[in-house]
Specification:
The complex is a heterodimer. Chain A has ten helices and 16 strands. Chain A is an alpha/beta fold. Chain A has a nine-stranded mixed beta sheet with strand order 6-5-4-3-2-1-14-15-16, with no helix packed on it. Chain A starts with 7 loop residues before the first helix and ends with a strand. In chain B, 17% of the residues lie in helices and 36% in strands. The relative contact order of chain B is 0.18. A four-stranded antiparallel beta sheet of chain B has the order 3-2-1-4, with no helix packed on it. Chain B is of the alpha+beta class. Classes of the chains: A alpha/beta, B alpha+beta. Chains A and B meet through α5, β6 and β7 of A and α1 and β5 of B.
Amino acid sequence: MANLEVTPLVRALLAAVLCLACLRESRPTPGRLAAQVDVIAVGHGDSILIASAAGKRMLIDGGEAEAGPVVLALLQQRGVCPLNLILLTHRHSDHLGGLASIVESCGTKAFMDSGYRHDTPIYLHLLHVLERLHVPLLQATSGRTIELGPGVVLTLLGPPQPFLELGEAGVNANSVVARLAVGEVSMLLSGDSNFAEEEWLLAHGLVPRSTVLKVGHHGSRTSSSAAFLRAVAPRLAVISNRADAPKHPHPETSSRLQETGAQILETGREGTIHLDFDENSVAFHTVNHPKTVRLP
Amino acid sequence: MSDSDVSLFIDAIEDDEVVVLLGEKRHRLPRALLPAGAKEGTWLRLAIDSSSRVGAAIEAKRARLVGSDDGGNIKL
């Protein structure tokens, strides 16, 4: 058998083949389901489950304390306990309240938040639970990535660095904002970010086009600026709200969202909204409209 | 009490809830929040407590829990 001489050319060819193999490995299989997202109907608040086909699952926020059992029931129904990670966008009770009971009953291998101060006793209780269960706490910083499987990557865009100090509006303005990319499609998860944080993200080139937008702060008047929405250019906008909330979404925000041409869904009207992501398309159905719709 | 103090008036105590008046507007609070000795007709004063030990406890505990995080990218 002739010896293969390892010339620079052969070495370069081998490197190219390996590189292509890596690229194939880092992309989801075309047409095959790569990730599922549930925007859970928790009333006023946020709770979003991301589960990849690779079997990794994370929860973003846990709604109010009263919503904990609702979220837990869905997690158990989906068979995703224990979670790999819980990400808290900020320490307001409608995002934080349900998490301690979820950590205790479902379990999680890690917990992440930004560290922006809001000295609520609910958060102190959560820290007690994390410590007792030996759950490591991770720092959410802009630029950090979380890989949930081949080609399924959540990139943290916010909070701003350094934190924006805006007095009474500081907690929302320092929300963790993240973008889930699944091949060519994506979802921007904007926590309760407001105009100030949106401006920071825009100024730093951190508002990429995204197929789906989880609308900031339940559709409040002080989130989702026209400039921000133009940059995101969503095809689907999802609002996590309560059915009878008079200001969520605010009429001005609804108007700005409608101008994008995106289809708009509200958990308050639809119940939990389920999204299926494959490499190049997104389909959804809701509790109240179970027929699957594929985004154009 | 200065004019700038914010005060709540306990208008009614109903089972687990208490109805308080802020000005002429009614609000409901959990009864468990009432300080000892409060009853219908009592005035409650709201004040900023900048010496709260909760904040210091949170920061200390969080710093301890986040101590081993290297801040790098994560593969679940």
